[in-house]
């Protein structure tokens, strides 16, 4: 499943997070790793895989939520990643089960493969320093160590875990033993860590061979490894994806690799590094790594400022003006607005829980919903009717389907569509339309070279997305 070459490093990218503290941009349906946050033209996932491309690396293993599989595949293709292994988690779990699955898959081809384990949503600005640290970590991994990347702290950060460095390891330049792990400290403790010089931020990046990881999982978390081993053994191929078996994977404990292995193993080591790292875990953290003007403001999108200082202002389309504010975060999407003091960035997660409790759909869903064939977005919704804009990529098609509770009217506004309606096959051009009565079997396809855009008007007693019966689907959806 993975290219076998023990001299190459196998990147393992964990893409299961939801980035809840970056709401309203990051939501469960389209989390932060799929957004261009630090770079203008590339997403966090694309930035991550770009750091692990070239002659020294094998094709990456990406472990992701099965609901995000087509987004992952599309973004990897756009980034020029050849032959990635995309592993689908049937249920959300922490990092240890995901890492165990990746290690088992890599081990099948090369037990000595060196795995570089990383999240899909961190920022790193100094790639030369990263390369040097990775070389040191890989050497230690080949010597049987499980190596953490410890970031040199630049502030008394209370949102990160810390690693206390131990003694230098003989024969491994720039690699140290780990004295202990420290969970997120209070401010006074973090300030002491900063001045003491022995504590590093725990970046969540690790390097180890597949064989070492599996041996330690077998010793320290045998029930977890057994469950994941069954999930991998019973996995199925779904198009270009490896779909882990659901029942055994659900038995795996929801635990991080830190708790399952790193805090217990005698093989733990740390490489101190100063690589311009940030987990971009909050709007305040994103402000810190963004380009800022002379007044300390970072802006994205159509934004105008007057007498504003040290603000982060982002708009995904609507002109947004900020006057006379300092240290404020303002984020505007097409269906939600967040305004807060930058010091309250960690409280967004609490706010999100409140929104979910109140059953606001904006807590988890964007107005634009992505599908393997393209996307759609809601425009207007009223009593017994709904209007959507649908965009279909060239050469793609929707499933052959019918609805029990709604009829639809499609109007093409750009491109060309081929519509199947029961026994008919209809060619639609710009400004042409078709009516799909309730219960008819239908499908739409874009046969052209440009995106197809159409307006869909739904009418009926129930307009939910679950009113769909699929008879045939190119993408293997039920």
From TrEMBL:
EC identifiers of the protein: 2.7.7.13
Domain MannoseP isomerase/GMP-like beta-helix positions: 306-355
Enzyme superclass (EC): transferase
Reaction catalyzed: alpha-D-mannose 1-phosphate + GTP + H(+) = GDP-alpha-D-mannose + diphosphate
GO biological process per UniProt: GDP-mannose biosynthetic process; polysaccharide biosynthetic process
Nucleotidyl transferase domain sequence ranges: 11-294
InterPro entries the UniProt entry points to: GMPP_N (IPR049577), Man1P_GuaTrfase/Man6P_Isoase (IPR006375), Man6P_isomerase-2_C (IPR001538), ManC/GMP-like_b-helix (IPR054566), Mannose-6P_isomerase_type2 (IPR051161), NTP_transferase_dom (IPR005835), Nucleotide-diphossugar_trans (IPR029044), RmlC-like_jellyroll (IPR014710)
Example of a GO MF term: GTP binding
Membrane-spanning ranges: none
Domain Mannose-6-phosphate isomerase type II C-terminal: 360-473
Alphabetical UniProt keywords: GTP-binding, Isomerase, Nucleotide-binding, Nucleotidyltransferase, Transferase
Pfam families: ManC_GMP_beta-helix, MannoseP_isomer, NTP_transferase
The family this protein is said to belong to: Belongs to the mannose-6-phosphate isomerase type 2 family.
Protein name, UniProt field: mannose-1-phosphate guanylyltransferase
Species of the source: Teichococcus wenyumeiae
């Amino acid at each position: 499943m993975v290219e076998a070459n023990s001299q190459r490093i196998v990147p393992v990218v964990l893409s299961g997070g939801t980035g809840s503290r970056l709401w309203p941009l990051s939501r469960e349906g389209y989390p932060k790793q799929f957004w261009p946050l630090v770079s203008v033209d590339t997403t966090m996932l694309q930035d991550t895989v770009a750091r692990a491309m070239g002659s020294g690396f094998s094709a990456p293993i990406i472990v992701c939520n099965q609901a995000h599989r087509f987004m992952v595949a599309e973004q990897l293709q756009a980034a020029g990643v050849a032959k990635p292994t995309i592993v689908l988690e049937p249920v959300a779990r922490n990092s240890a089960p995901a890492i165990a699955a990746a290690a088992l898959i890599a081990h099948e081809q090369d037990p000595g493969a060196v795995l570089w384990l990383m999240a899909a949503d961190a920022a790193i600005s100094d790639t030369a320093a990263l390369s040097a640290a990775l070389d040191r970590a890989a050497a230690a991994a080949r010597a049987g160590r499980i190596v953490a990347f410890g970031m040199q702290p630049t502030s008394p950060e209370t949102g990160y875990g810390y690693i206390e460095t131990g003694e230098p390891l003989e024969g491994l330049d720039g690699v140290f033993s780990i004295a202990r792990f420290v969970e997120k400290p209070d401010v006074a403790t973090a300030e002491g860590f900063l001045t003491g010089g022995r504590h590093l931020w725990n970046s969540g990046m690790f390097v180890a061979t597949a064989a070492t990881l599996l041996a330690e999982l077998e010793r320290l978390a045998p029930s977890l490894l057994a469950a994941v081993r069954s999930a991998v053994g019973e996995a199925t191929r779904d198009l270009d994806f490896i779909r882990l078996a659901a029942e055994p994977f659900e038995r795996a404990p929801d635990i991080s690799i830190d708790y399952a292995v790193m805090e217990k193993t005698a093989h733990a080591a740390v490489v101190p590094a100063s690589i311009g790292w940030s987990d971009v875990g909050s709007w305040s953290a994103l402000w810190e790594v963004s380009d800022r003007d002379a007044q300390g403001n970072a802006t994205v999108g159509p934004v105008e400022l007057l007498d504003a200082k040290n603000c982060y202002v982002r708009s995904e389309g609507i002109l947004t003006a900020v006057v006379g504010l300092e240290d404020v975060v303002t984020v505007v999407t097409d269906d939600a607005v967040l305004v807060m003091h930058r010091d309250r960035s960690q409280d967004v997660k609490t706010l999100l829980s409140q929104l979910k409790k109140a059953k606001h759909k904006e807590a988890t869903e964007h107005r634009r919903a992505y599908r393997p064939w393209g996307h759609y977005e809601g425009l207007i919704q009223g009593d017994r009717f709904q209007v959507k804009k649908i965009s279909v990529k060239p050469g793609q098609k929707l499933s052959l389907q019918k609805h029990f509770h709604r009829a639809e009217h499609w109007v093409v506004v750009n491109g060309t569509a081929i519509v199947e309606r029961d026994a008919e096959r209809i060619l639609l051009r710009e400004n042409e339309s078709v009516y799909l009565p309730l219960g008819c079997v239908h499908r739409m396809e874009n046969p052209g070279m440009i995106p197809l855009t159409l307006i869909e008007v739904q009418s009926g007693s129930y307009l939910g997305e679950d009113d769909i019966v699929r008879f045939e689907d190119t993408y293997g959806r039920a």
